[in-house]
Amino acid sequence: MSFWFNTDLPTEELAQQLLGCLLIKETEEGVTSGWIVETEAYLGEMDQAAHSFGLRKTPRLEAMYQSAGTIYIYQMHTHTMLNIVAKEAGDPQGILIRALEPHSGVELMEQRRNMSGLGVTSGPGKLTKAMGITREDYGTSISEPPLYLSSDQRRIPKNIIASPRIGIPNKGKWTDEPLRFTVGGNPYVSRKKGTVDLDLGWQ
DNA sequence: TCATTGATGTTCT
DNA sequence: GAACATCAATGAC
């Protein structure tokens, strides 16, 4: 099976390659999918902002120590976050999926979010609710249903914008490190600033 | 067992 | 732009 990730690449490069991949979630209610337009890299052992900083290992972090492509789910403030493990087993680096451009199942996503428009998937907690992603998906593989990536329908970003990560103050240089990657000009990016391109930033 | 703390989102000003 | 809702994981005891 051909797949997107290559554990020889640095996590921050994998995070950029994820932009434009189609994420698909199958549920009993229906299938939803969307293109990834925003990611953040978490560099594990050396990254003070990562849960796995210093190779800390707790039951919650179990999936981070699995092999690349394992799904790590984290919940806070009643919100669920979706991460994908980026390196081989024992090297707890991961990529946070922060925003999607909806593709199919849009009505179902709007129904789950009880709203329509750009706000449906423009944030890490929002997209998981829109797609019905829960801790049930914890530890499963990103290459197998019900939650998986498609490389068939992938889009290529025209520009990739790097910027500091969101919501991690007081972490020294890691607060300012440009490990957040977005599709330039795409309106579904969270905390968007700047203009929106007519082609939404895709090639 | 209990207190603290967020990789956030919504709402109000 | 700032407050707060709201809860599970974590770590101290």
Features:
single chain, alpha+beta, 4 helices, globular
Concise synopsis of the structure shown:
This protein is of the alpha+beta class. The protein has helices at residues 11-18, 106-113, 124-131, 173-176, and strands at residues 22-26, 31-42, 71-76, 79-85, 94-104, 147-150, 160-163, 180-183. It is globular and about 40 Å long.
Structural commentary:
- The model has no long low-confidence stretch (mean pLDDT 93).
- This protein is an alpha+beta fold and 203 residues long.
- The chain is globular and about 40 Å long.
- The longest helix is centred in the N-terminal third of the chain and has 8 residues, at 11-18.
- The chain has helices at residues 11-18, 106-113, 124-131, 173-176; strands spanning 22-26, 31-42, 71-76, 79-85, 94-104, 147-150, 160-163, 180-183.
- Strands 1, 2, 3, 4, 5, 6, 7 and 8 form an 8-stranded antiparallel β-sheet that branches.
- The chain has 4 helices and 8 strands, in the order H-E-E-E-E-E-H-H-E-E-H-E.
